[in-house]
């Protein structure tokens, strides 16, 4: 693993354990590097916090989101959401980091939304809205509803004794609950 990857991993673990108030000194102690080495690889703690979030969101997009087919948009959405929830369950530290980032008042005050992480979801949602598959609500409203669903399901499954087993048994039912809320009802 590269020094930068070590920094990101150590910082992610530290922030999950202690929150974003954890200090730079705690970080350098945790990963065992000098402060100068840290700042050679990052511009500052706040930017590191955002960069880790971006890295994780783009990793999800790369590993979980594939091409969308108009043949069966419900199954396409279910497949993608299933991959995302399973990724969260399989990577709990990464999931917890995303969760604390997205719910942190500090982040909302200092950074607002991280716009470039919304480009992919917006594009996929607009395809489905334009096809008449999803209700014509505001794109970001649907995106946040999608995010809420995947995060809630990951939290639900991670709270169970056997998260992966429960995921395999219950995800289809959970997805149907979600789909009933966002899909345009087909007539006839």
UniProtKB/TrEMBL annotation:
<dbReference type="Pfam" id="PF00440">
    <property type="entry name" value="TetR_N"/>
</dbReference>
<protein>
    <submittedName>
        <fullName>TetR/AcrR family transcriptional regulator</fullName>
    </submittedName>
</protein>
<feature type="domain" description="HTH tetR-type">
    <location>
        <begin position="1"/>
        <end position="60"/>
    </location>
</feature>
<dbReference type="InterPro" id="IPR009057">
    <property type="entry name" value="Homeodomain-like_sf"/>
</dbReference>
<keyword id="KW-0238">DNA-binding</keyword>
<dbReference type="InterPro" id="IPR001647">
    <property type="entry name" value="HTH_TetR"/>
</dbReference>
<feature type="DNA-binding region" description="H-T-H motif">
    <location>
        <begin position="23"/>
        <end position="42"/>
    </location>
</feature>
């Amino acid at each position: 693993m590269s020094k930068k990857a070590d920094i990101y991993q150590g910082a992610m673990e530290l922030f999950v354990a202690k929150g974003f108030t954890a200090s730079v000194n705690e970080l350098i102690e945790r990963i065992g590097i000098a402060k100068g080495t840290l700042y050679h690889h990052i511009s500052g703690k706040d930017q590191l916090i955002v960069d880790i979030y971006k890295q994780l969101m783009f990793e999800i997009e790369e590993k979980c989101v594939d091409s969308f087919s108009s043949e069966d948009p419900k199954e396409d959405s279910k497949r993608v959401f299933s991959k995302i929830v399973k990724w969260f369950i399989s990577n709990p530290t990464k999931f917890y980091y995303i969760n604390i980032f997205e719910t942190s008042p500090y982040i909302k005050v200092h950074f607002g939304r991280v716009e470039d992480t919304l480009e992919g979801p917006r594009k996929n949602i607009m395809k489905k809205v334009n096809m008449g598959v999803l209700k014509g609500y505001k794109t970001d409203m649907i995106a946040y509803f999608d995010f809420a669903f995947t995060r809630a399901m990951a939290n639900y499954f991670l709270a169970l004794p056997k998260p992966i087993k429960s995921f395999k048994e219950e995800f289809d039912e959970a997805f149907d609950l979600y789909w009933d809320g966002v899909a345009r009802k087909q007539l006839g």
